[in-house]
Give the backbone structure.
Amino acid sequence: MQNENVKTSHTDVMPAMAEFLMEVSLEDIKKMPATFQFIFDLELETENMDDVTLRIEVMRAIRDLKTLTDKLLPFTDEVIEKGVKEFRQLQKCCKNA
């Protein structure tokens, strides 16, 4: 995902993911695949979804959300928050070194 005129690098990925995890609760993440599936099922009834490319992209997005959910499932919000805080501290230490 890119914003115009913003330079990013591979080192920006993990901090951005950490920020995402801090802002979104695990419960919200767990609900995302079902929510998107619900929206997708409704959209299938419209002419927009006659586009095979759009269908494929929506299915990929749902799959990716399920993968994210599966990866985070073993963790609680508290464990994720602790991990993000430790990640931030480690990142600060590395920048100061």
About this structure: The chain has a mean pLDDT of 81. Residues 57 and 63 are 10 Å apart (CA to CA). Residues 25-96 form one domain.
